[in-house]
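Per reviewer request, we include the raw input and output of the structure prediction for the construct analysed in the revised manuscript.
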Amino acid sequence: MGKKEFLKQIKSLHERIQEHEAKIKIELIKTIPDDKVIKYWEREIEAYKNAIAKAEKRLRRKR
């Protein structure tokens, strides 16, 4: 993958993180929030952050 693809992937992952954080906020507002769903989204966010770190590392290596 080239530089453009890594940058596109990183941007996409940041957008997904924002979407999941918004979902968590909405769930926390509910009178009875679903903890399982929140934990799932938090794990997803961690996975996205790890993927971003790997993509940034590969991007630095490409230069």
